[in-house]
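Trying the structure run again after the queue cleared.
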Amino acid sequence: MASAGTLGFDRSADIVVVGFGCAGLAAAITAWRAGAEVLVLEKEPADAHTPSTRMSGGMMMATTDVGKATAYLDRCAGGMVPRDVSEAWARRATGLIDWLLEIAPELNLARVGGAEHPEFEGSDAFGVYQPGGAKTRLDLNGKAGVFLWEKLAQNFHAKTGVPVLWDSPADRLIRADDGRIVGVETTDGRRIGARKGVILTCGGYLHNARMKRDYLRTWPVYFYGNPGNTGDGVRMAQEVGADLWHMNQMIGRAIGNFQLEDGSDLPVILFLNPPGYVITDRYGKRFADESAQANLLHGFYYHLLAYDPATGETPRNPCYWFFDEKRRKAGMLTLPSVGAHAVGIYTWSADNSAEVARGWIAKGSTIAEAAAAAGVADPAAAQAEVEAYNRACREGSPDPFGRPAETMVPVEEGPFYCVKLYPGGSNTTGGPRRNARAQILDTRGQPIPGLYAAGELGQATGMLYPSDGSNLSEGFCFGQIAAEAALADNGAAA
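Done. Tokens:
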């Protein structure tokens, strides 16, 4: 095997972590606690660091019973993740809350929910936790993700002394003659040696248009997670022979996407509630129970993937959300605690008036006028559909799509509004295939020596999102697993 000197490294460490979000932090802390020398490479500069953890709702999924939790995760995966990988996650998640509080006791984590699919076997073994306490909510206006990340990062820097090389995008993996991954090269040509392993925690491909078009099931698709997640880890892993898995999957919702003055996209999570909403396709026809989207569940986006082979169209991408003046005045159409708003990329107006003025929210004196302004192909059909919905609300008729009666509130107080909704969400989940020890596997199913991954990059989720907080849970859990495996595979830390 070539030596570090032969390979010409500028600096080296036992463990090199690529990406500083929840998974990278977990990997770095775990390796440091084991006595390893650790170095973190972060693509973004320190003063513009927007990890998905910080942009999230700050929730963590944890488990209480390994067997039950494994069964539930396996059901949610739908055959896309091996059961032993789900078991590794379930096992590690039993101690996740204690692990987080040991790092940052001031998080004051409190249980706020449970599994997203309570009808599945094992769902009772899940809890969702979020930073709690009056002080957190008062000081941070509910921005639990910002609070979570700031407290974890502060404790990480203060306690570990692990260096983070900011503004250092990883460009390629360095491989020794025997096939082992022994380092990382940055875009500016620095060569960083890894004596015991490289752990990729650099996120998915949510902001890589080509990859989204190639791999996801519809187009266009937009995500409100970290703008720095552009598929770098997928490309680097492929270059050294990694296999890929569930590249067509994502953590999905219907979301908004708007154009800023500089022409860039602003993907935004949208919040339909309180009731008084209708969603139609581009021809003005309803197609599903909208309350799933209103309650921010993660299955509604599957309805948006429909493709019409006769016309070559995706008639529900975009789809169109109709509401009235009462809803406009009820509060922001977005959640200020999540995404771009949470990290200061854009500040949404409290009454949505600025976004109406920008043209992001189409307006009309009738539903048909709002539909025409938004680009619906058949505004008259949209008018008729909303009128039929309103009649059902007033008469108490069963909804043809099974929408709960308590959500059937008329859309009738003009003026009226319409917003385009696209498939998207928080993140993609595809990436290099990995096993239960977070080792990245090649196309023959064998571990690539010295290479590991955690977090959104090849995330261990499949068809259904298990619960709120699953993204962060997976990153924290597999970050720990990856560091432990790297050290075990390559000898104890010096």
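The mean pLDDT is 95. Worth checking whether this holds up in the mutant runs.
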